Amino acid sequence: LTAMGESSMDPAQQDSLFSMMDVFLISLIIGLFTYWFFFRKKKEEVPDLPKMQSVVAPVRDSSFIEKMKKTGRNIVVFYGSQTGTAEEFANRLSKDAHRYGLRGMAADPEEYDLSDLSRLSEIDKSLAVFCMATYGEGDPTDNAQDFYDWLQEADADLSGLRFAVFGLGNKTYEHFNAMGKYVDKRLEELGAQRIFELGLGDDDGNLEEDFITWREQFWPAVCEHFGVEATGEESSIRQYELVVHTDVNMNKVYTGEMGRLKSYENQKPPFDAKNPFLAQVTENRKLNEGGERHMMHLELDISNSKIRYESGDHVAVYPANDSSLVNQIGEILGTDLDTVMSLNNLDEESNKKHPFPCPTSYRTALTYYLDITNPPRTNVLYELAQYATDAGEQERLRKMASSAAEGKALYLSWVVEARRNILAILQDMPSLRPPIDHLCELLPRLQARYYSIASSSKVHPNSIHICAVTVEYETKTGRLNKGVATNWLKNKVPEQNGSSSLVPMYVRKSQFRLPFKPSTPVIMIGPGTGIAPFIGFIQERAWLKQQGKEVGETVLYYGCRREREDYLYREELARFQKEGVLTQLNVAFSRDQAEKVYVQHLLKKNKENIWKLIDEGLAHIYVCGDARNMARDVQNTFYEIVSEFGSMSQPQAMDYVKKLMTKGRYSLDVWS
Question: What's the whole-model pTM score?
């Protein structure tokens, strides 16, 4: 039919059709040619793209190997540090290197690609040292988390790497020096060569002495390994140079900010350690009714901060030193504390340009940035000794900084046990008058203080509560020493729009968490201010109950000295018990009778009930407070309960409790 139809067209129609076809074909050819032409042009431009990309997005210089080669270093000292001590030790070791004709650099593992460790052998006489602190329950510090993850997953060949590890830990904790031990073991497994034995520092004893003892044996081992000798250069080498600003724009001067200049005037989330939020204190009340101590409950307003927290998290606060101590240091050194200055790193390649935010005034540095209340470490005494004009005082300082047994004993008694801070040392050594800029270079950074949050975000989404006791004691020299943060917080009185009641803070996440199922029973043990996280836990369980959720048994073991003196949150606990949220409230008053009664004694009284909750109810156990005595005694009590009612031997019972910890059913939030 179609063919018949086509053949039946007249010639005029056919001519018309062919002319239309011609136009169509020509248009199509032109279109295809044009498309091909432009497409081909684009293809020719493609090779230029990688060049453009390389200009736009340069690779981040995260190679410590390249930096070491560029600056002629052969020793790198990595630090995993939470409170600054491991960083300080790393700096001391890197400075030591020059005495042996070597050059060292301290490095934050967070800033570099640690897989480059396999390339360290490219550098002659190269060595990697690791100063690793253990944090929490055997965890790496925040800045060493990526390094720890890499070590766990790495299958790198580190056979050319020479290394040594010094761990910083505390024997009162369950996982003593876990991070240092792990790094030492894992590097060897990956083929690296250990050139000196693992050092285990104990902060419950004398961490400084442990470090010095290790360091004094470490360097001879390095010398022997590389065939080098000490150069005899014991002279003090300044790391920073002083620049005094006489004509400076005060808008460019730091006044206490931790990171960004003017960050306290122009607050921007997210808030963290380098960008704290200024929270208004809305409540500050004394909790105890008597006794010589001051226990307090504070509430910080976090409205509009976008800060989120969970029950069990910690709040970190940045305190300020007592202005009278700062003024006395200024007077004794004859310094105008309002002088604006910068301390600039003499090593231009260093990532750390200043020891603290600069430019700033000496007053700001001593108030917000430097630790002036803790006994100074031996390296500070060694560096300061040169400024003592009295030969006896100079010798005494040098002796305390030495590794000799007599020197260590003198440092322990005269500095550590007498709790002499830098002001006390200056007062007791009249000829010691160092330049204030060198003193500021040597003093460690003032660290944030952490408190277990005493509230639930379900009940108080815009507020974080703190429970704390002021620290105040008389030293062997008759001086009154005060805790920096607690005495600073004590004076934070709520005011309407008053700047004096602002607290720089941020939240640090914790593993101390309520069970996922509200119906799971909980056993909480927290004497003294150790009750803090449990106030949050109980608030949350009460809220869950109000939501119609089935809430399991909520059992609290609390302890204080006297019922009429320091029974914290008595009314709140009584209300929770009356409402049926707190199913058991057991309180030990240690000094209300002839024999002292502590929380572990009450646990023993109720051991059958406790075993039933653990064994049948699959209860979660939480312990908060003193690590040295209470947490250990409580753990031993659980060993006894498990052994007796679980019909297990002591080693089996210990293993059972350890497994509860591994499963997250026995959690600790302790301090020493």
Answer: 0.87
CATH 1.20.990.10 fits 321-446, yes or no: yes
The DSSP annotation for 223-291 comes to HHHHT-----------SEEEEE-SS--GGGSBSS-SSSTTTTTS--SSPBTTB-EEEEEEEEEE--SSS
The 10 Å CB-count burial string (b at 16+, else e) for 490-513 is bebebeeeeeebbbbbbbbebebb
Amino acid identity, position 208: E
CATH annotation of 522-670: 3.40.50.80
CA-based nearest residue to 606, from 574, 576, 584, 579: 584
How far apart (Å, rounded) are the C-alpha atoms in residues 541 and 556? Answer: 13
CATH classification number, 268-319+448-510, choose in 2.60.40.3580, 2.10.50.10, 3.30.160.20, 2.40.30.10: 2.40.30.10
Is residue 212 within 8 A of residue 408, CB to CB? The reply is yes
Token pair 């070791």 in the structure block, residue: 93
User: What are the sequence ranges of the domains in the chain?
Assistant: 64-226, 268-319+448-510, 321-446, 522-670
**Which tens digits make up the pLDDT trace of 404-431?**
999 999 999 999 999 999 999 999 999 9
- Are the C-beta atoms of residues 466 and 546 closer than 8 Å to each other? no
Tens of pLDDT along 356-382? 999 999 999 999 999 999 999 999 999
Pick the CATH number of 64-226 from 3.30.1440.10, 3.40.50.10320, 3.40.50.360, 2.60.40.1640: 3.40.50.360
Report residue 450 CA to chain centroid gap.
Answer: 9
The catalytic residue positions are: 452, 624, 669, 671
Same fold, 268-319+448-510 and 522-670: no
Query: CB 454: neighbour CB atoms within 10 A?
Result: 27
Please tell me the least confidently modeled range out of 31-35, 134-138, 361-365, 664-668: 31-35
Closest among 607, 619, 617 to 523, alpha carbons compared: 619
Helix axis angle, 632-645 to 607-615, nearest 10° = 80
The tens digit of pLDDT for each residue in 431-469 reads 999 999 999 999 999 999 999 999 999 999 999 999 999
- Assess contact for 88 and 215: CB atoms under 8 A: no
Phi-psi bin for 419: left (phi > 0), alpha (psi -120 to 50), beta? left
